[in-house]
Amino acid sequence: MMWTTTVLLLLVPQLLSSTDTGNNANFNESEIVNEDFSDAPVKGQKPGGVKGRDTCSIPCEITVKLLRDEKHSICGQLQQSLLAFGRSTRKLIRDVLDEQQRAQDILSSQVTELMAKVQTLSSEVERSNTEMYSIKPVQSHGRDCSDIKDNLLSVVPKIPSGIYIVHPENTDSSFEVFCEMDYMGGGWTVMQRRTDGLTDFKRPWADYADGFGNLAGEHWLGLKKLFHIVNQKETRFQLHVALVSQDDVTSYASYDDFHLDNETQFFSIHLGRYAGSAGDALRGYDQDQNQDTAPFSASDVDNDGCNPSCSIDNRTVESCSTQHNQTGWWFNQCGLANLNGSPEDAEQNREQRTHILWDTWRQNGVLHVIKSVTMKIRRIATNN
Questions:
Q1: Where is the Fibrinogen C-terminal domain (predicted)?
Q2: What is the dihedral of CA 56, 60, 65, 71, to 10 degrees?
Q3: Contact present, 124 and 169 (Cβ < 8 Å)
Q4: Average of per-residue pLDDT across 352-358
C-alpha cells in the first residue's frame, strides 16, 4: 500500500530521534522486519534491494501497531458508511412507499369521483328516458294531407312536401304520413311509393296491414291507416296512380271515388270512375280481370279467387301472391295490375309477371317497363 508506506517513512525519523541512542545499540539490524516493505521500494533504493544494512528500517511492534490502527480505522469508516447507507436506503424506501401511498390515495379519490359522476349520469339518463316516454304524442297537423293543406293555406304561402302527423276522425291514435303538396295542386296523402328497389315488398299479411318502409322513400303506408283515412265521415277520396317507365315516359290512372272495407272483409277495394292515360288496369278488359271489389291478398292470406287454382296464359296458378313473387295486392284471379310487384328471382321463370305491373299501359302493343310508381289519395268535393 503506497499510502501506508509513505506514512511510515515520514514517521521513522521522529521515532528514531525520540529513542535513546544507547538503546539503539541493543537493536540488531537482523531483527528489523523488512518483508512488509519489500514490495514498495524506498526512494534511492535500487530495484531488487541490496544485501546488508537497509537504508530505512522500522521496528516490528510499530509496524504492527500502525497496521492495526489503520485496519481499525478502515473498519470504522466502513461501518459508518454501511450505517449511513442503511439509513439512506431505509429513508428512500419510506419515501417511495409514501409516494406510492399518496398516488394510490389520489387514484382512489379519482375513481370514487368518477363513479359518483357515472351514477349521476345514469340517473340523468334514466330520468330523461322516463320523461321522454311520458311525453304526450305531438299534436296532429290535421286529419289527412288534404285537411292539412286547407288549414295551412291561409297562413303559409307555400306548403312544403314532407312528413306530417295526421289524426283521422273516429280513431284513437295519430300516425305519420308523407304529404305531397306540390303535385297537381297538393294535398295528396301518399299510400305507396316505389322508386329505387331498396325496400323489399315480399311481405306477409301483417306487414301490409301495418305498413313498412321509409315514408320519405319507398314505403307502403298500411291498410289499417289507409282505411281510417278514406272512411272518415262525409269525405270522398280520389285515388291517383303516377307511373314512370324505364325510358322516363310518364302516365297516370285516376279513380274519382276510392275507399276500403274493414279488416274483417280483408280491406276490399272500391273504385269510382276511371280517367287517365295508362288505361284502367284495375278493371281490365273483362269481368274475370276486374279487381274492383277484390279483397286484399298476401303470401299467407289467400283471397285471390283461384279456388283451387286459376288458368292464366295456359298455366295453372294456385296463388297469385306466389305468382307475383310473394307480394300483396287486390288480386282477382291475378288480374292485370300489381303495383307492389317484386323484382324477379333468378330461379323463376322469366315469362311470369313478377315485377311492377300495369298491363294496360302499352305503346304500339308493347308493355311499358315501369321504373317507379306512386299511389296517392286526396279529398274531393262531396255532393253535400
A1: 136-381
A2: 80
A3: no
A4: 72
